[in-house]
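This is your field. Have a critical look at both lines of this record:
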Amino acid sequence: MSTIPTSNDKTPPGEAAERIISTQPAIAAGLLLILSMVLNAPRAPMAAVIASALVAVAVIPTGIYALRKLRGAPRTGVFRFFLIATMVLGGFFAVSTLIQLLAFSTTSAYLECVSTALTDAGRIACEKDMTSSLLRQLFGG
C-alpha cells in the first residue's frame, strides 16, 4: 500500500501566503539588477546604456520598498541579506554605468580601435589614445 508523501513544513497557509507576498518586491529588485546588467552588454548602443543606468538606479528604491514589506514577515533573513547585497551591487552598477555614459564616445572609439588593431603595438596605441582622450574629457585641454 502506497502512501502520499506529506510536507514536514508546519507553516500555516495564511503565514505562507503572507511570506510569498512580502518577498515579491525582493525578487523584483533582483530581477531589475539582472535586467540592468543584460542591457549593458559590451558594445551596447547608447540607448541600451541609458536604459541600463535608469534600471540600475531603480533597484535602490525598489529594494527599500521591499525591505519595508519584509518588516513584519517571519523568517526573512535570507531575503534581507539578498536585498542589501542587491542594493549595494545596484548602486555600484549605476555609478559605473553613469561613468560609462559620460565617456561613451571615448570607450566606443577604443573598442573600435582595439577590434581593428592587428598587433600588440596597435592595441597599446589604442590604450594610449583612450587614456589621453579620457584625461582631456575629465580635465579639459
About this structure: The mean pLDDT is 80. The chain is about 80% helix and 0% strand. The two ends are 86 Å apart (CA to CA). Residues 13-39 form the longest helix (27 residues).
